[in-house]
Amino acid sequence: MFVSEKEIEIRYAETDQMGVVYHANYLVWMEIGRTSLIQDLGFTYAGLESEGYLSPVIDLSIQYKAAMRYGQKATVRTWVESHGKLRSVYGYEILHEDGTVAATATSEHILVKKDSFRPVSLRKIDPKWDAKYTEIQRAAD
Fold first, then answer.
1. CATH code of the region 4-140
2. What is the pLDDT of residues 63-77, one digit of tens each?
3. How many CA atoms are closer than 13 Å to the CA of 133, on its beta-carbon side?
4. Of the chain's two ends, which shows fewer C-beta atoms within 10 Å, N or C?
5. Which residues constitute the signal peptide according to the record (predicted)?
């Protein structure tokens, strides 16, 4: 299974009044992780958008395990959990510097035409990208 890792320096603006990272910031970090994974594989989400396609989130699940705070560094680990004809599910672990799991998550995405929001298969848009996701998906293990 291919796993992309991206380090995030936690900024003060990402914390709440308790000094803990505000829960919605984990979603931003997951987006950073997906973008990093895609780039590590040699593709770009911006390129997909420029071709007239979007990949909206249709489902999201996150479990918070251990609070993170300002001044710490988080590592976002991202992989392709499963990849099918129309849906891709990404898996995530967000880790403290010592390896403690701060959160785990999955996000499910579809690929749609920007102008109509009609679903389209990645295989039709970019067969190499589709093949790479099929190859590295965790579900294939």
1. 3.10.129.10
2. 999 999 999 999 999
3. 27
4. C
5. none
